[in-house]
Amino acid sequence: MPIENYPSIRLRRLRKTPALRDLVRENTVTVNDLIYPIFVEEEIAAMAPVTSMPGVSRIPEKMLASEIKAIAADGVKAIMMFGVSHKKDATGSDSWKNDGLLSRMIKIAKDAAPELVVMSDTCFCEYTDHGHCGVVEQGHVHNDMTLVNLARQAVAAARAGADVIAPSAMMDGQIAALRDALDESGFSNLPLMAYSSKFASAFYGPFRAAAGCDLKGDRKAYQMDPMNGREALRESLQDEAEGADFLMVKPGLPYLDVLADIRANTLLPLAVYQVSGEYAMIKFAAQAGALDEKRVVREALGAFKRAGADLILSYFARDIAREGF
Ligand code: PBG
């Protein structure tokens, strides 16, 4: 078929008016696609602003119920919960106690807004005194010992009422281990959102301050090398084979190629995490007057959709729910 060319083909014809552009737009983002990550800290009295993430605060456990109601009233449909623990130990055992912070915050959230989808980030870095995402043995995070504890944490989150379990520790076999543990505990209907392609990224910098989980060293022995694309596809397909209900790419904007590649190779719902560093870059640039925040956010989230994401985790989700795009 011969390719027609200018002047008979004029692509600008369909860009002439706002209504025409609306008609031919290929992707849209709505609040239904968004998941809002929040940080909950025990034993503090007041909201604790995260200086590296303007507009984000650690919510005191005491204020969580009223904050959750306000978040739901703003129109947010789903949240991802992170605990900021004051009871850290070598294994992160507080996270699987029935009266521990993780269980309490999930119960509070579900009681305050039963219709809100509550996702539980399932990992250990916020609960261990060394800051690693699992059990450290002779200087290394021990994969299979960590799986046992991840299963404990997932079952505790399930008992507390979480709607989705989202393992982010990047241990091999974690989806299979959690699926088994949940099924055996009577939670065969509870979905698993795998942080399936999670990179060892410098873009998590502000999160580590927000969640109080700084560590000496790095996570390169379990999170992925940012230089690898094929391996990201292997990780995601492996999680799909183990029974994941959603897949995820994290971070977002620097990894759109990975997102598109996974989209082309799976039928599962695919999430993307616009991480703390991506949020901070936009916020600080907007504060400096260099960027128009709203337009940049719309463009970045639209790019995730274009690349193949169905769901987007974003610290902008609450603003978008409240103010629209
Ligand atoms: C826990 C976890 C991290 C993030 C989400 N879950 C930190 C990490 O892996 O270092 C980062 C989120 C963000 O930067 O916004 N494992």
Task: Tell me what you see in this structure.
The chain has 325 residues and is of the alpha/beta class. The protein has a single domain (27-323), classed as TIM Barrel, CATH 3.20.20. The chain is built from eleven helices and twelve strands. β4 (78-84), α3 and β5 form a beta-alpha-beta unit. α4 (143-160) packs across α5 and α8 runs parallel beside α10 (293-307). The chain is globular. The protein starts with 17 loop residues before the first helix and ends with a helix. The structure holds ligand PBG.
Characteristic key phrases:
325 residues; alpha/beta; TIM Barrel; ten-stranded mixed sheet; two-stranded antiparallel sheet; 11 helices; 12 strands; globular; binds ligand PBG
Number of strands: 12
- Name the CATH class: Alpha Beta
Q: Low-confidence spans: pLDDT under 50, at least 5 residues?
A: none
Q: What would you call the shape?
A: globular
Q: Indicate the CATH topology.
A: TIM Barrel
Q: What is the mean pLDDT?
A: 97
- What does the radius of gyration come to? 20 Å
